[in-house]
Model the fold of this input.
Amino acid sequence: MKNTDPTDISLEIAASTFAALGSEQRLSVLRCLVRAGEDGLSIGELGKRTGVTGSTLTHHMKILAQAGLVTQEKQGRSIICAAVAYDAVRQLSTFLLEECCADSADPNKDHDHG
Done:
């Protein structure tokens, strides 16, 4: 998700990012990296924590990286994976809610969304 303006996201970018999150394993990997914070996890530790390993984990990381949700950086003999999804997830949330209730029969009704 390479758009830098948090209030401007196209339907195409949103669909692409949601598609990247459309796998339980990829969503699990992303959630694990979000929990780990900005220091990230080694690919081995990420595999242990999620139960996704080997070529399957490599495949999922590639899709998440292409969507701009995670990064992978070689540090010595390790590959460190980290979530960079914080702004992207906010963008997706804004995208979904920005026109909330715009076509509602009662435009003055207060719509609380948390």
In short: The chain has one domain: 11-96.
